[in-house]
Amino acid sequence: MERRRRSQHERAAETSARLLNATVDLLHDNGFSRLSTPLIAAQAGVSRGALTHHFSSKEELVTDAINHMLEQVTADLHRFAEDIARRRGSSDEIVDYIWRMMSDRLFYVTMEYLPEARHNDEFKDRLIPVVKNFHAGLDAIWMALATSRGVDPDHTRTVMNTTMCLVRGMIAQTVLREDPGYYSDMLGFWKMQLAQQFPDQGAAVAVPPPATNSSLKPAPAPKAAPARPSQSPARAARPRGARV
To answer: Cα–Cα distance between 184 and 89 in angstroms, integer?
Structure first.
């Protein structure tokens, strides 16, 4: 059969996706300070002219790449929220899910662009709405748990934000400290604290499906974990190329 010729729109979308993925890969592997548009073009296998045709600046490309990455993560967050609500899942599951999600390149990439956002107001302004959308996905998970357990939403958001700060700090420390038992102990301790905040009561609830990209492959629902994880979370979730 004769192969269908791609339209100009399809070719442009493919080129854009290659540039976005290459940007995230280079942010993770090389860091923001070593990132350049010629290097991104070479990594994506496109010409420099093609890059400048799609993106007017390095900041625009990085922002769109981060948005592209977070859109996929956020879609999975909403799916996980639906699963937690349907099964009346536990806070233990949420902690394990967040640890895996943040350790799988996400926070390592975040550590690369945060310093630039601190000093570059235009870059920071571009990122704020992108990150807010990601936080909305996190909120959906915790609100599903709060509703099924009859816990105050404001209190739940405080718990959520505290959990995220704990996980971010732990993952940042993995750069210089490879100590699986150390992280396992902290995750186990925090799970015990959270279990007291969400007593098992109430009935299962349904949450409306979010408007997400249906082409994304759904993430499999994680299994419930014990209070103290038996495996090494830091080693099991180590992204490719991460150095400790």
So the answer is: 21
Tell me: the pLDDT tens digits for 62-83?
A: 999 999 999 999 999 999 999 9
In order of 130, 150, 243, the CA distances from 103 in angstroms are: 19, 30, 13
Cα separation, 108 vs 175, in Å, equals 9
Residue identified by tokens 């639906």 is: 82
- Under a CB-based contact definition with an 8 Å cutoff, are residues 221 and 83 in contact? yes
Per-residue pLDDT tens over the stretch 4-25:
677 888 888 999 999 999 999 9
